[in-house]
Amino acid sequence: MTKKIPPAPKEIIPNYPKMADKRLEQLRFTMEDFKVDAVVVTYLPNIRYLTNFSGSAATLFILPNDLIFVTDDRYEEQIKTELYQLPNMKTYISRDVWKLVNDKKLLKHVPSLGFEADRLPYSVAVDIRNKIRPIKFKPAASGIEPFTIPKAPEELACIQQACNIALDTFDFVLGFISPGFTEKEIANEIAYKTRQLGSENDPFDILVVSGPRCGLVHGAPSDRLIKKNDIVIMDFGARYKGFVSDITRTVCVGKPTKEQKELYKLLLSAQTAAVNTVRPGINGKTLDKSARSIIEKAGFGPYFQHSLGHGLGIEVHEMPTITFRMDDQIVPEDAVIAIEPGCYFPDKYGIRVEDNIHVTRNGGKYLTKSPDELISV
After folding, report:
1. Residue 351: pLDDT band by 50, 70, 90 thresholds?
2. Are strands 230-236 and 247-253 parallel, antiparallel or unpaired?
């Protein structure tokens, strides 16, 4: 059976956690680097990191000493209990943010306004610029995400609970998976069980592939029936209070071959080497190499095509990206990352192991832990 991590403590995210203060302080420092007097945040995951708002429409203005939060009338009641009680934050209800800004002169002392250039479509940015003239509307790409990579203790507790739900769901799957089930049926059971255990939704589309379809790195579930001695790859997660988990489990429905068992052990050893290499400040490219070199040395390098991993939080794919393709991805303390080495042989089979790791000052800490051997069911 799978190894389990002890359940996370039953904590409720309090209003105004310390990490919110730190993120806002860091953002205000970067305003000088971008040469802007304020920043507007429109990307909803970033707004949630800063304010705890979970709705589908909001705009946040960060000024040197004040915050302005705008949402529409659908969330007028919700924000009364959901928003962090941040100092000097004013809230407004409007379906036309920029008309509100102009009518109430909310930015009258702001000569230049930075925006999330990597999140806001060009056409939208041009439209806003025209609405707020003579205020200068200046790009501030990746100005927020670096400060949301480290997670607050309250956020880590939610991620751990999302991990626990995924682990318990995998145990449930082991109890029924057998020849005759379709990939779609297994995916549906996973979705139902995670909800039953407290997941808010699927943080991403559940992936289930079997037999020769395991050669598909990110194959969607099909109507294919599981057959005896098939390898089955299941990639899924859970969401708890907005925060997600992302694990992959590979099993054999029957008797695995010697080659399959050895490949599983190889991938697990590569993952273990990466976890043992984790330390605050490490470059993602270095971390990727720590696992990839083991796979390459064993002769399977061409079959490990994707990156080693990625950050986790409100979104299932966040910074930093753990990849050999980038050399500017730094992994800070209190980041949560998914590490997922895998090898895939088209029309034959594939294996992937994926676990979630908390980056502590003392190294990597498992939030989930893959079985030591390829499970046979």
Report:
1. very high
2. antiparallel
